[in-house]
Amino acid sequence: MTTPSTTTVTLASVPVADAAALHDVFAGVARINAANNLALLGHTDLVDAPAATCAAFLDRGDADKLLLVALDGPTTDPQGPGLPEVTEIGTARVLGYAEASLPTKDNLDLAEVFVEVHPDAARAGLGGVLATALEDEVRARGRHTLMSWTAHRDEAEPASDEALVAPTGVGALRRDDPVTRFALSRGYALEQTERHSQLEVPVAEEVLAPLRQQAVAASEGYEVLTWVGRTPEEHLEQMARLRQRMSVDVPMGALAFEEEAWDAERVRRGDDRAERMGRTVLTAAARHLASGEMVAYSVLICPGENEAVGWQGDTLVHGDHRGHRLGMLVKVANLEAMATRRPSTQRVHTWNAGENQWMLAINVALGFRRVATEGAWQKRVSD
User: Fold this and answer.
1) Are 203 and 335 in contact (CB under 8 A)?
2) The 369-380 sheet, strands edge to edge
3) pLDDT for position 1
4) pLDDT in tens, 247-269
5) What is the mean pLDDT of residues 91-108?
6) CB distance 54 to 85 below 8 Å
7) Residues 79/83/87/88 CA torsion (nearest 10 deg)
8) How far apart are CA 375 and CA 363, in angstroms?
C-alpha cells in the first residue's frame, strides 16, 4: 500500500525466532509506544523495554501470539503467498503494528487485540489496514470474540451530546476522540471504562498509619504474608485458586470473559515470564488463620528498565471474606514492602473498573489520583 505521502508500506508477520534477531522489530514497537504515550500522558512509564516485549511475545505457555508490522522499506525476507514473515528488518522502520493474544487454556473463542501507529504515520489509513489484517488472522484461527482497550486523557460529561456512555452507567468517552471514532468505525462496542490512577510514593506515614491501624483492627483472625519474586512452593496451589477466582470476581460489564483455568504450574509459568521480562513482582497476601486459606492478595510489578515506576497488578479479596478491610491490609503491606525493597520507585499506576467503587475508595484513601480513562471494547465476528 502507499500512504498519501507516497511512502510504500509493507505489511509483514513476525514469527517465533531468536530474540536477538527480533531486536530491531521490538525496538520499533517500543518507539511507537513511547511516542504515543508521550503525546497522551506526557511520560513513558507504561512503555516496556524491547527485550521485555520480545520475551512476552515469545512466551507461549498460556496463549498464542500474533504480531503484524507495517514497514516503510524493504525487508530481508522474500515475498511469498500471504503476508511475508520478517525478523531482521534492515533499514526499514516500523510505522505501526497489530498484535493479538489468543488464550490456549481457556477462553478459546477470545482474541485480545491491539493496533498502534506512530504519530508521524497517523491519519493515513494505516491503522485500518493493520486492523483488517489482524482480524482476518484471528478469525482464521477460530476466534470470534475480540476485545481491546484504549487510553483517553479526557472523559466526556455523561449528559453531553458528545458522550459515549459505557453500558455499566459509569464513565463516558468523547465521541470526537480519534481513538473512539476508530473503534466505532471498526464495529467495536464500548462495554466498560476503567479509571487509570497514579500514586506518588513512598506514601507519607501520616497517611498510611491510620489506614493500617483501621485495617489491622478490622482483620482480627487474619495474617499478612509478603514475598518478592517467585511464589513460594507452599503457596502455589492457594495462589492458583485465588488467580482463578480473580478472573471472574472483578466487575467486567458485558465483556465475555470465561473463568480461567489456573493450577500450580500456571502460577510457575507466570513467575518464569516475569523473570524473563526483567520484572520484580511484590506480593502481599492475607491468610485466614482458622482455615489456613489465603483469601486476599495484591501484586505490585516493578519493571527492570525503569526503577522509578511500579504498576499495580491484581488485587482480590475472596467474596466470603469481604468486610474485614483485607483489600486495604494487603495494599498497605505491599506499599511498605516496595518502600523497603524498591526504594527507587517514585510512582505507581493502577487501573480500576469505574463501577468498582470499593477498590476505588481504597485507592483514593491511599492518595491515588485520576490521570486518564481506558475504554474496554468488544466485537463479535463470524467465520
Assistant:
1) yes
2) 10-13, 63-71, 94-103, 110-117, 145-152, 369-380, 189-200, 347-353, 309-317, 294-303, 279-288, 222-228
3) 46
4) 988 899 999 999 999 999 999 99
5) 96
6) no
7) 50
8) 20
Grid look-up 518507539 returns: 31
56 three-class SS = helix
Q: At how many degrees (to 10) do helices 205-218 and 357-366 cross? A: 140
Sign of CA dihedral 242, 244, 249, 252: positive
**pLDDT confidence band for 91 (50 / 70 / 90):** confident
Residues forming beta bridges with residue 174, ordered by sequence position: 163
- Distance between CA atoms of residues 65 and 14, nearest Å: 10
CA distance 334 to 314: 12
* Other CB atoms within 10 A of residue 2 CB: 9
Give the residue with greater pLDDT, 80 vs 321: 321
Structural domains of the chain sorted by starting position, each given as residue range(s) with its CATH number in brackets: 10-195 (3.40.630.30), 202-345 (3.40.630.30)
Long-range contacts of 212-221 (CB under 8 A, 24+ apart): 212/332, 214/325, 214/328, 215/325, 215/326, 215/328, 215/329, 215/332, 216/329, 218/324, 218/325, 219/286, 219/324, 219/325, 219/326, 219/329, 221/288, 221/289, 221/290, 221/324
Q: How confident is the model at residue 367 (pLDDT cuts 50, 70, 90)?
A: very high
Using DSSP, state whether 220 is helix, strand or coil: coil
The DSSP bridge pattern shows strands 369-380 and 222-228 to be: unpaired
Residue identified by cell 482480627 is: 220
Q: How far apart are CA 103 and CA 110, in angstroms?
A: 7
Contact at 8 Å (CB) between 66 and 100? yes
User: Before 202, cis peptide (omega within 30)?
Assistant: yes
Closest C-alpha to 304, from 10, 33, 99, 55: 55
145-152 and 110-117: which strand pairing?
A: parallel
Closest CA to 112 of 178, 55, 167, 67: 67
